[in-house]
Structures are given as C-alpha cells and as structure tokens.
Automatic annotation (TrEMBL):
Protein name as annotated: Mov34/MPN/PAD-1 family protein
InterPro entries reported in the protein's UniProt record: JAB_dom_prok
Residue intervals of the JAB domain: 20-111
Gene3D superfamilies for the chain: Cytidine Deaminase, domain 2
Species this protein is from: Streptomyces cellulosae
A Pfam family reported for this protein in Swiss-Prot or TrEMBL: Prok-JAB
Keywords in alphabetical order: Hydrolase, Metal-binding, Metalloprotease, Protease, Zinc
Length: 123
C-alpha cells in the first residue's frame, strides 16, 4: 500500500459515539479531547478509535493535556486488535473560535515531525 497525502478522513460510527458521549458528559467550561487511531491507506485516513481525556488529563478553558498513560493504553489495545496507529488528535475550544488556534498549528507541525505518542501539549 502506498501512502499519499490525505485528502479524505472517514470517522467510523464508534468514533462518533465516543466523541459525542464525551461532549455530552464533559465539563463544558474546559477543553476536552483525545487521540485518534486508525489506518492511512492511499489518500484516506479511516479513524477507528477515538480517545477520551483520561483521569489524569489537565483541562482548563484554554489548555488541554491528555492523560498519556490512558492514551498509551488505548493505542496499545488498538494496535494489538488490528494494527491501528496514531492518526491524529481531537479537542474542543469551549472559549474560543472553532478553528485551530495558532498554538494548534505549531503543535500539528511538531506532530508531523514526531508522530510517536509523546507528552506533547495540545491547546
Ligand atoms: Zn485547539
């Protein structure tokens, strides 16, 4: 399989359910989010698993740092099940505009160079 630049992103129903459930139940005054796991084939990323913040996540109105151990456990489980890998992240902006912030752009650029699950900060 040859990977090409991503022009399509498919979210599966289980992923939508995880995100919707988190949005319904989360504290809406602070950011929430998690990692996205799936497959990149040709020009399409298919997201099969979405993470939640985890019990040790740091959440403020303008800052989000997910629980690394929680994310790593989900990533290990998803990889073992059918080879799902990290394909991205999701998070909310409860106090800002619903577009990537300047800091998000910096974070994403760093992620393009370093795609292993690390302790990187998302805002
Ligand atoms: Zn953001």
């Amino acid at each position: 399989m040859t990977q090409q630049p991503v022009t399509n992103v498919h979210l599966t129903s289980p992923v939508a359910r995880v995100i919707i459930t988190e949005l319904r139940t989360a504290d809406h005054t602070t950011e929430t989010g998690g990692l996205l796991l799936g497959h990149h084939t040709h020009d399409t990323v298919t997201v099969h698993h979405a993470g939640t913040p985890g019990p040790a996540a740091v959440r403020t109105p303008t800052y989000f740092l997910r629980d690394l151990a929680h994310a790593q456990a989900l990533a290990d489980e998803a990889f073992a099940s059918d080879g799902n890998i990290w394909v991205g992240e999701w998070h909310t902006h409860p106090t800002g505009r619903p577009i990537p912030s300047a800091r998000d752009a910096v974070t994403y650029r760093q992620l393009l160079d370093h795609t292993e699950l690390g302790g990187f900060i998302e805002q």
